[in-house]
Amino acid sequence: MKYNDKYDRNLQIVKDTVAFKNKHVATAYAGSTPPAIYYNVTVAEHYANGAEGAKRHLQYINELDARGPINAMNVGYTSYIDVMESMGWWSHVKMPGIELPPNSVHQVEEKAILEVSDYDFIIENGYNAMTQKVLPKIVDMARVGAFFASMQQQDASNQLVIDAGYPNLISTVVFPPFETLCGGRSMPKFFMDCYKMPDKVKAAEDSMMKDMSAWISSLPAEKYNVGAWVGGLRGASSIVNQKIWDTLVWPHMRKMAEILVSKGIIPVMHCDACWDRDIARFRELPAKSVILNTDGMTDLRKARKALGDHVAFMGDIPAQMLSLASKQEIVDYVKRLVDDIGPQGLLLCPGCDAPATAKFENMAAIYETAALY
Amino acid sequence: MASIKELLIELDDEQVLGLVKKELDGGTSPQAILAECQEGLTEIGNRFSAGTMFVSDLMMGGAVFKDISALIMPRLAAGSTGKKLGTAVLGTVKDDIHDIGKDIVKSLLTASGFEVIDLGVDVPADKFVEAVKTHKPKVLGLSCLLVSCYDSIKATVEALKAAGLRGSVKIIIGGGPIDGHVVTYTGVDAFGSAQFAIDYCKEAYK
After folding, report:
1. Which residue from B minimizes the CA distance to A356?
2. CB count, 10 Å around CB of B136?
3. Contact A44/A97 with Cβ under 8 angstroms?
4. B133-182 pLDDT tens trace
5. pTM of the model
6. How far is A44 from chain B (nearest CA, A)?
7. Do A355 and B63 count as a contact with CB atoms less than 8 A apart?
């Protein structure tokens, strides 16, 4: 990989922010689909042509960067988002232009793919074997083959992003076992399992973690491998009760973060919904090494009080505001956030993933306002 | 010994199902058991609103109630399930296939004594219009998990206006990316959580 001054400068800003040494508030971009609508192509077309999609994605970020500096990417481009999510979530993912209207976003089909008996298979054989077993049921294997073929071009894709000067905060995606099982069993059935057979679920998770830990440990400690997305979606504190969270959600999220930190990779704890109840537990993670990435539903003011300078925050401009609010409302939201929790250890970013309908001027308002701090 | 209501609140499915069977065999009326379950689910909803119970608890409570209903229903004479509090129509809007939030609301409304017409997911505006025309609910609940589907909510509101039905029904929305901006943009009446939907329906049929 060949690096450049802009990339190195931005990477240093990201590292300083995670370590609470930044002087100014940092920024990151998140938005898989806004470039499509902005450049008048359908979301389906945006995903279908990988080379064009990747260029369009960067072009959009560059336009925003011209309005106010963007220091990192929190959502990279991939035309195989369905394959990636199917592998991580053991669910069928419906794609725009294939099973959904061309301007829809991709959506996970809530359907039980795993049977109760599959827990025993997982306990005996692990995550990799179960993934091999489940994939043909949820995704076109020709597409899986094409995805892996595209991975041969991964260096070229990474180089494009590096050339544009943006460290990729989610160069790796890691699904904790709770999320993967929840996808595979479907949420209603999996939650019943968590009440009725928690020991079995835990044993399956522990077995999955062996393969997952080995894989995370094998990740290359390269300069472009800046961060890893660690998903916390259905394991949110507002969704599961304390016992489930304590035993089936958090232990593996924490372990994954610890391994990533030991590899020099920043865990980006992508925590959708509200995590207020358990926010203090993030103190258990290695200090000044982790980013907590929230979507506007977790109270970052309380989180800052609970966590001090232990964990950096990334977020949290709500998706609905990016789509419907006025530019001034975005400016006010960003100012209030920075004024309340301070610029240190903060990366301003759309919450979760900016929606396709995000107004460009609202997106620009995030970065223009950040530049004031 | 804990009551059916208490065991339901504790989400102790084995104990509560055992007790329901015992009570039924002992001659307790199914209606009385149903009423106790409704009280239990109301308390679960209240604790959810207070932040001491969570979405998983709502789902588990709904599932346990479904199992209890399977025991009770065969013992109820046709038409003796008690007076319905009212009717609500629910559905996830067009181009959105998420059903979990909708199903939680359906389960709680049913348990609270409402007749629920569930139109499913990816429901076009004209289907909502047809259902409102047919079932004459006082409340229409729209579920939406995607920012890209706000226009589907708006289209549903517009279709109801065009059909001359908007004045006859209150429209509430729920889902992750929902707030006051979405209420204003789409022209619905209110938004909120699952428990909010139950309280809103009870208020509408008071």
Report:
1. B148
2. 12
3. yes
4. 999 999 999 999 999 899 999 999 999 999 999 999 999 999 888 899 99
5. 0.93
6. 14
7. no
